[in-house]
Amino acid sequence: MIGSRYLVGLVWRLGLLILAALAFAETLARPDLGATRIVAALVVIGSGALLWRHVTRTNRELARFIDAVRFADFSQGFIHRSEGSGFSELGRVLDGAMKRLRDDKHKLIDANRFYEAVLDDAPTALLTVDGEGRVELANKAARRLLVRHKGVRVEDFRDYGDAFARALEGGAIGRPRLVPLVSDGVPQTMLVSGAVVHRLGGLVRVVAVQPIQGELNAIEIAAQSDLIRVLTHEIMNSMTPVTSLAHSAAALMRAADKGADRDVADARGAVETLARRADGVMHFVESYRQISRAPEIRRRAIDVAAWADELAALFRASDRAEGVTLDLAVDAGMALEADPDLMSQVLINLLRNAADAARDHAEAPQVRLAFQRARSGRAQIEVADNGPGVPENLKQDVFLPFFTTKAKGSGIGLSLARQVVLAHRGVISLETAPEGGALFRILL
């Protein structure tokens, strides 16, 4: 590894030391050369130092390399062509090793940045809990989802429910569980799972929180749609011949009824009533078939302020708005991506229901329509009234097909509204308004 330049340097330094030593020995034999003896001694010392420095250069370079590695100082260089040290080959080797370390460090930094970006932008909310119970929101999804608490202890997360706090304490390790959690004021079901990892010599729990309410709702809607499709198909197959025969019988009875026989007249009336009821059942079944058809969403950018004004005008133009005050609130500059036609149907239906409830209950009926941004960044739409509200035990039932609290209700409107919202990958919930009535909250 040591080249010819090193050998040349070693030879002339060694030769200089030998000559200096011989000269010094000569001055010792002659007492009259005192000054020369001193000079010779200095030359011996100097040439010895040169030889020592030349021989120990390898150790110094290696020591400098080791110190650079120990302190992660990868900016050092080890090639000294201009010094004529004879260690060019050693310098190239050390310099190559230092370059490799620099490259590995840069690759490690790039990899860390990549994994940090992947972690931060992951769609699933991730939290870490250290051995002292300190909770850290590890990515953007977690910071958007968990915005109500204050503090970093597990106890501080009981704002989201005891079940969620127990999951953070380790209840979800190895056993994923469904946990109810209120996000943006809307109750949602979360799939919470956890794992234990090593970090800086200690153990850290990593907890993943994945909203699955949309998937559960989609499964429920699909099951309802399948059931309705089967039932309406069977009912219509059975009722079609009944309706046809009822109309044929009614036509025959009209021809036979000359007004002279009261029994014939009564029979005609009964058959005609049967025909009308058969038509009513067919119309009833046909109207419910629309629940089994998934709405087709055509998204586009919506200017919320203009859209809200349009909805308010449509509401005020309807007979349901008579005597009802509409309060409209829209966050400045708000926009969203949705199907304006389908969402307009949903909101108009909610506004009309709210007006009916308020008019029948309050002396000064009032309805509120509000558009704003939730803390998570999602678009939030609220329709509230000062009516009697919905009993707590019925709040989950109002979205079921055929369920209604109105004497003349069909039970279709809220079910269809839920289907439209779910088709937008959103959620809809029923809460109690500050005025005491119903509050429908939609997150898109």
From TrEMBL:
Query: Is 4Fe-4S a UniProt keyword of this protein?
Result: no
Keyword Endoplasmic reticulum set for record: no
Matching entries from InterPro entries are given as: HATPase_C_sf, HATPase_dom, His_kinase_dom, PAS, PAS-like_dom_sf, Sig_transdc_His_kin-like_C
EC assignment: 2.7.13.3
| Reactions accelerated catalytically | ATP + protein L-histidine = ADP + protein N-phospho-L-histidine
Question: Which processes are annotated in GO (biological process)?
Answer: phosphorelay signal transduction system
Which Pfam families does the UniProt entry name for this protein?
A: HATPase_c, PAS_8
Query: What PROSITE patterns does UniProt report for this protein, alphabetically?
Result: HIS_KIN
> Which residues belong to any copy of the Histidine kinase domain?
230-444
Keywords for this protein: ATP-binding, Kinase, Membrane, Nucleotide-binding, Transferase, Transmembrane, Transmembrane helix, Two-component regulatory system
This protein's source sits in the domain of life called Bacteria
* Residue spans crossing the bilayer: 35-52
Q: SUPFAM superfamilies this protein is in?
A: ATPase domain of HSP90 chaperone/DNA topoisomerase II/histidine kinase (SSF55874), PYP-like sensor domain (PAS domain) (SSF55785)
GO MF, any single term: ATP binding
* Protein's UniProt name: histidine kinase
Q: Which organism is it from?
A: Allosphingosinicella ginsenosidimutans
Lineage summary: Bacteria, Pseudomonadati, Pseudomonadota, Alphaproteobacteria, Sphingomonadales
